Amino acid sequence: MRYEAPTTVKGAVKLLAGKAGLARVLAGGTDLLVQMRTDRVAPDLIVDVKRIAGMRRIEAKAGGFRIGAAVSGAELGEHKGMRKAWPGVVEAACLIGSTQVQGRATLAGNLCNASPAADSVPALIAAGAAVVVVGPRGRRTVPVEQIPVGPGRTSLKRGELVEAILLPKRPPRSGDAYLRFIPRSEMDIAVVGAGVSLTLDRQGVCSAARVALGAVAERVIRVPEAEAALIGTKVDGEALERMAASCSAACRPIDDKRGTREFRIKVAGVLARRAAAIALKRARGK
Amino acid sequence: MPLDAKFDPATHHFRLVGTRPLRPDGYDKVVGRARFGADASAPGMLVGRILRSPHPHARIRAIDTARAAKLPGVKAIVTRDDFKDGDPSLKDVLVNVMARDKALYDGHAVAAVAATSASVARKALKLIRVDYEILPHVTDVDEAMKPGAPILHGDMRTENIEPAPKKASNVASRCEFGHGDPEQGFKQADVVIERRFKTEATHQGYIEPHACLASVGSDGQGELWVCTQGHYMVRNTCAALVGMDVSKLRVTASEIGGGFGGKTTVFIEPVALALSRKAGKPVKLVMSREEVFRASGPTSSASMTVKIGVTRHGRITGAHADIRFQGGAFAGSPIELGAMSAFACYDLEHVKAVGWDVVTNRPKQAAYRAPGAPMVAFAVESVLDELAHKIGMDPVELRLKNTAKEGTRSSYGPKYNRIGLAACLEAARRHPHYEAPLGPNQGRGIAAGFWFNFGGQTCVSLNVNIDGTVALAVGTPDIGGSRASMCMMAAEELGIEYDKVRAIVADTSSLGYNDISEGSRVTFSTGLATIAAARDAIGKLCARAAKIWGIAPEAVVWENGRARPAGPNAGDFAPLSLAEIAKTAAKTGGPIAGHHEVNADGAGVSFAVHLCDAEVDPETGRVTIKRYTVVQDAGKAIHPSYVEGQFQGGAAQGIGWALNEEYVYGRDGRLQNPGFLDYRIPVASDLPMIDTVIVEVPNPGHPYGVRGVGETSIVPPLAAIDKAKAGKKRR
Question: Domain B26-34+455-600: which CATH class?
């Protein structure tokens, strides 16, 4: 096994695109190292991206933010601007693992690990985030929801890596939130996760909404029907119930050791409704 | 050495007992200097790794190690061929350590390698070819009992049933305890409730995985450094399994990162010894967390039917339990302890508990804190709670009306000596928690629990040093702060300061045999032996003083750490302190030491009552424990902080068992959650501060009245939490 720590994105792409057998990107390593230790993956090449300039920075950009791929959850949690603009995203990122894990784990790693239960991904999709992908053919910007395609699988091609995550400018009268169900209070993997972001017009009517669910399908899903249930309403009880029903209807989960199909379908609606209520409160500036 | 009839621990003024000094092992543990199992190393040490069966049930047709043996760096490989049949009583232990004709569970050891590095050892395991014939498997206790279930052992016939069965079965044996006739009792009842319960297996969840370092020389002498609750047991068992004289194997117990009963048997130790002997070099073997889950000893899972009848006035007229435990692939689940403890809290005329010991394709269970009792108490206490509700009686009142007391014939046979259940029930009812208001979606549960406690073989040596300090050697690994308690008891007797006594856990060649640290026996029996050894030393100290003074030894008494003449007739001499006598020991007869060897009897049983408030999210079912109170009889708390720690620890593990901990087997018979991510023990933020009340009803079997406290605390939580979850508010 070869370990490389390039200092440029170009260098990283070159390594990843080379004929090195199985290559893996190392950012926080909180998934990769565990997978290696349990014999689930045995990479021939590990490319550590933490020494690449800009990878560990959060920059304000066009009213939004550019978050380097190696920024840790703890760094994100301490960033005042991000906390104010996208509290749902920050909360989701800060739910991952423990305080120790927080010091290493990254949004990009959480996304590229492509777990259907990844906590930050529903929040990022709800927030309308995109990623900057760099590869042998240059840079491209891709919506977050297009990165995971199935459990452990992404749409990234050989030689490609995520350089940064882009969060848009937060529109006025907007709020976001993420909630998950775990049987414990921390140190766990979501049985169901729900991210909601919504915007109100001056009359308090919902003008835009994005809803995403985790751990209810082979990848994190966006639920347009749930969004439609909110748009044009005052996000009252009835609208929330319709949104919850749409969420449950969109679920296609599995039964596994963490939860049953039936439980996930029901709780997806409950959590989406509760997350929407929090997002609404935030949009109203409370 | 029982409690002196004239000595009342409740009113006696102890100088040290009952205080809370720092533990002698605390500093090392905090700064990282303490040496645990995996911290041992030796020159030329090899790394051992074990190959484990991926199949829950398979015949092993052949094991081909030729390719692995050729890998550079591989120094030894052992398989079933390296372990010969010996002591028939250890056959199951041997087969569990290394599979013979069949792999009996997912994780069963099949071969092991010793190599110059971990990566070579790992590669070598991949080169071993095992030819398996996959067989049908069964992991559920009820399924295993059905006719037509896959049979694990062709020679297993259910014991203790008439007529003796001719056909093989997964039911190893039946047992029965009780007296009277429950059927007759039910006829006298106004309300009879029968319910069926199932509980899943849990794991002790100790933080430190099993680890050892074995070194066997070509002269046949061996040493073993190991994390265990009983290094004498490890020595005797390993010596028998690998064919060594007991005297040629010296075992040293490391510090221990938790055991809770799970380190009361051997798993990797005989394998490490066999590898070391074959390689001619020391071999270190450390289990991964996954191996700990798949191949150490979790609890039994249980299936139970409990029937209890009461009168309108709350008198229990009859009680019956039918209890089925699977204990993994070998006979020996704690079914007897489960059946014996089922109704031990109550004074009953008609009571019976029948138990069935069942084998399945799971790892061989090991002890876990009050083995067998928590699940049975869950069933019994749940039915009692329902009965209390039905007859409109306060649940504590119902229990008080039927509580076992001194002189009660217990449901498992013996008559009780002085016991503290009624005192615990009353203390629970008086506690502010009992009447505190509940919030929305909250409920309160209450349950009682019992544990036998144990005494056992114990040997202690106490050496008086030249400077007046004392070295205390005990042979029971310290799993709960026992070195601190022993120092306190020795210092109390000798009349010296706590920090003048240093306790160590001696190795097997330095001190006589000691039973395992189990059955909540250490503070009781090692404490009893320590007190006796101190009194033995005091006798010798007095004799030395007598010699110095030229008077008869009987004319010397020991008071406040000094020898002094017994009275005016004995002579007029200034008292001599322990340090003064120690200083001149060479001139008065040589070293001064106290010893005591005992097979301690009279471990008093311990009862507890738990109160739990839980809040349930009505939409998701998520449970939060809001408040928890443990009330338990400690007899006499030597070090109250460690008693409270045991109360809280048992409650915390019980909360885990009640809410989220369970062994999940897939249809493929493989363990689905062999790690702390999906085997969910409670984390700190899952628990409220657990309140404790120490009740002290002295145990007549101990000089200070001590009762073991380590296990009872895990018995009531399952029922208490379940009732709290169900939102059953007290009337």
Answer: alpha beta
